[in-house]
Design a protein that fits this description.
Layout: E1 4-11, H1 14-19, E2 25-32, E3 36-43, H2 51-69, H3 75-95, E4 107-112, E5 117-122, E6 126-130, E7 137-141, E8 164-168, E9 174-178, H4 183-186, H5 196-204, E10 213-214, H6 216-226, H7 229-232, E11 239-246
Helix pairs in contact: 2-3
């Protein structure tokens, strides 16, 4: 029996619409055997020519490795997956006469079973969780910026990967992953917290649904919301979000 239901959507930013360029975010979310949630979001660097492919490779490889492994990973195992990811991107770059930096992308990853939650993060964007229905939301992985304004870290960085991981001994009631396009709209940077209002609305939309897995109608509504004037007036970047609730 499915143990999770989720909404997920990604929307091209108005800056890309004006320049007639592709959306550079990617995401993937599904439930593997025995009710394990696997989710990933990746944001391709705007300055990298093939970053949307780097984001797609990142989401696909990491979620495939998680599904094949079958269990919530630890940091050591995830580092092996990151090494494989970098090798895959390097190989792709070489075949096309490019450099790894041309595929620069951030990474957010979460996997949860009935007993624990593992999260991994490179760069900006964020991961938040709620332990109990109606409870407070907590940011378990905060955006990380680079040395200069509007910079961050990527899985392709030459100096190595600034990988942050956390393991929690209890599964969340709800969890959300999102790219940096909306982080300043939904996080309180002054207190480094996740105000509940927005996330309660997103997760609450699934409350009355008995359907397991992907909530397609609600995901389409999220897609419309992420492209609405209300959002686009405040950000011109790509916007991607996954919100999952344990049934």
């Amino acid at each position: 029996m499915s143990k999770w239901k989720w909404i997920a959507a990604s929307r091209r930013g108005t800056s890309h619409e004006r320049s007639n360029t592709h959306r550079q975010d990617a995401y993937r979310c599904f439930e593997s055997r025995y009710g394990r949630l696997i989710a990933a979001v990746s944001d391709g660097a705007g300055s990298a020519s093939h970053s949307r492919y780097g984001a797609a490779i990142t989401c696909r490889l990491l979620t495939n490795r998680a599904r094949a492994h079958g269990k919530v990973p630890n940091r050591n195992l995830f580092e092996e997956w990151i090494d494989e990811l970098r090798d895959s991107i390097a190989s792709t770059a070489t075949r096309h006469g490019l450099q790894m930096r041309d595929f620069a992308a951030t990474m957010l990853f979460a996997m949860s079973d009935a007993r624990s939650l593992f999260v991994a993060h490179v760069g900006d964007g964020a991961i938040v969780r709620q332990d109990d229905p109606g409870g407070q939301w907590e940011c378990v992985s905060w955006p990380e910026s680079g040395e200069y304004a509007s910079t961050t870290f990527f899985v392709t960085d030459n100096a190595g990967v600034r990988l942050r991981t956390s393991t929690f001994d209890n599964p969340p009631h709800a969890i959300a992953l999102f790219s940096d396009g909306i982080e300043r709209l939904v996080l309180d940077f002054a207190s480094q917290s996740a105000p509940s209002g927005f996330f309660d609305t997103m997760s609450g939309a699934m409350k009355d649904s008995e359907l397991p897995g992907a909530q397609r109608v609600l995901s389409r509504q999220l897609h419309s919301y992420l492209g609405s004037p209300k959002i686009n007036e405040r950000t011109d970047d790509d916007k991607t979000m996954i919100v999952a609730v344990r049934r």
